[in-house]
Amino acid sequence: MMGNSLKYFFADFTHENYRKLLKIAKQNDLFCDFTNYSPKENFIIWRHDIDFSVHSAFKLAAIEREENVVSTYYIHLHNEFYNPLEKEIADKLLSIKQMGHKLGLHFDTHFYDITNTNELRDSLSFEKNILEKTFDTEIHSFSFHNTNDFVLSFNEELYEGMINVYSRYFREEVPYCSDSNGYWRYERLEDILVSAKYKNLQVLTHPAWWQDSVMSPRERIQRCVKGRADNVMKRYDELLSSQDRENIDW
Ligand SMILES: [Zn+2]
Questions:
Q1: Which domains does the chain have, with CATH numbers?
Q2: What does the pLDDT look like over 198-249, one tens digit per residue?
Q3: 138 C-alpha vs ligand 1 centroid, how far in Å?
């Protein structure tokens, strides 16, 4: 099993190392977001698709805040691991915004079974509206969840007033580094940052892949799922006790 931890760089994915990577990136690159980059200048755009845990997103947001870096957090409204509209989670997302980060829409075409641009526009506009009202902010950009060739064929720069982070420009002109599935499928982020080999870069992280201690990717997800389950049970127990009800078990 030791083989996997080296092969897939388990030790890269700690909060301590995350901070180290941010420090390297800050030295070499100008941090921008999708609304304020200039194609002619060097820039790095740092984004997070929240696929598993808003608590993990909050931790990365706090580290970025300490390092004076601004990034964008993309919220998924049809998620199986968290509900962005439940009070505790919505408050965490608001805190991320209050730290100075941007919120974006992580859009799931598969939920709607979208087949054409009109359907895409309708659903994008509907979800943009939900996020803007819930989080009292403007949503300037969106990212597709679980991309495939069909989804990526929507490659215009702008839909419903939101920048498409998978537009033709970004996919063809801006190198991209992602931690999808908890490992570096293409290049390792540290290698890219240390070599400073690219003029521009888009970095995508999914916050749950970054934890306090070294874990396998599967363990990192298990931790998120268990944390949520424990929290829900705790709330159930507290609710009954606050109402002076019997909490009946075997
Ligand atoms: Zn996603």
A1: 2-242 (3.20.20.370)
A2: 999 999 999 999 999 999 999 999 999 999 999 999 999 999 999 999 999 9
A3: 21
Q: How far is the CA of 92 from the centre of ligand 1 (A)?
A: 19
Helices 217-242 and 54-66 pack at an angle, to 10 degrees, of 110
SS3 43: strand
Q: What is the CA radius of gyration of the chain?
A: 19
Q: What's the 235 CA to ligand 1 centre distance in angstroms?
A: 28
The amino acid sitting at 117 is T
CA distance 113 to 120: 9
User: Is the Cβ–Cβ distance between 15 and 63 less than 8 Å?
Assistant: yes
Q: Could you tell me the pTM of the whole model?
A: 0.96
The DSSP annotation for 189-237 comes to: HHHHHHHT--SEEEEEE-GGG-BSS---HHHHHHHHHHHHHHHHHHHHH
